[in-house]
Specification:
The protein has about 475 residues and is an alpha/beta fold. The protein is built from 17 helices and 16 strands.
Length: about 475
Amino acid sequence: MAVDRRSIITNLYDINALKFGTFQLKSGELSKYYLDLRVIVSYPKILKQVCTLVSTTILKDEANSKNQVRLCGVPYTALPIATIVSIDTNLPMLIRRKEQKTYGTKKLIDGEYSCGDDVIVIEDVITSGASILETVIDLEKSNLNVSNVIVLVDRQQGGMQRLSERGLKINSLFNITEIVTILKEEGKLSDEVYQSVIGYIINNQIQPAKECEKPLRTQLEFKERAELLETSKIAQKIFKISLEKKSNLCVAVDVDTADKLLDIAEKVAPHICILKTHIDAINGVTDSTINDLQLLAKQYNFLIMEDRKMADIGNTVKLQYKKLVDWADLVTVHSVSGGMMLKGIQEVINENTDHCRGVFIVAELSCNGNLISEQYIKETVKIAEEYKDIVAGLVCQSHDVISSPSLLQLTPGVNIKNTNDNLGQQYQSPSDIILTKGADIAVVGRGIYQDDNPAEAAKVYKESLWNTYLERVSNS
């Protein structure tokens, strides 16, 4: 159905949705006009006109999309518009909450969707584009693709350009110049008011903001990151030990007997912040072995991490973790079974308040042929953020997986002498791991415990890794 654009503008003026005079905006700025499009919900005929124009615009573009398309109105004025457009176009709708739920599913985006779906964002007015950008970011965090943004009125102060520069496709149905021109032609605005609005537009362009970006995780020193409010107690403890010992070395003691475990542990203990074990793969482990390991950890100030990579349902993991919590400061887990697994561990930790305990979640693997996908990594990061009180960090290989400076990146696969083994393990140098891949804590295994002098090898790795970390933060 054809829509008379001039009619929409004059109708909006007649219902006082377009006001002219002097108005203080939310920013504190004084404006020569005010757009109050909230009132259109009380005028069904005009609301229908506006929504039909939006629907027509969407259907022209939607035909080119290969993905499922969904609609999302920026809260709150655009919500009724998006709802009617959803009915008109038969495109499903999503609702982005302004505040995340603190109960139930704790969702920020309500509605049914699949990862990778396209979303068309609908907004009533654009000035700087900030409110649209907030919605876009939350949709992208939910692994949705914002394919288009449709705005009813552009105030022509730079918001359209700002979003376009971010790579968003954005269309406005009207701009303020067109509106005042038509209203002047229809005899509804005097030449004086018309000129005052045009002058206001020219003199009130929003300058591109100089990015006040927070420092990247890799640019911040451990001391600064430890002091962040959102940093978990277990992560704070790792930072503290690393700073005290000037070590970001984790040694993986993947040996086959309890005697070898204790022998290597004692030799490398002065140089490490974390000792990584596979107790379930070692022969001859007794309660005495665990007790001796704990005494070493206390004497030499390091943490014990059992690399169990638990991945079962929440209740099973809870039962498994109860057998580890008394002695393992840290445990590794896979996120394949979702957040409920972390909830099970969280419950056990909360029951054992005498200990500072936590987990590293495996987000990436260092071996060739692993089946971890980009989507899996994104979901793993979301789980880590949700259970940040017990998550020390992520096991990963890429510098851009973790953005939060409160989480540590633990990266395995460090070996100065070798680049790979015959079972798919890929090794990296300390420089590659710390500077390129973004590791905070580096894991060294065979490069130390198979060396003729494990103590000296640990000292060399410790100094190399720590100096590379210092180089990283000093260049920031």
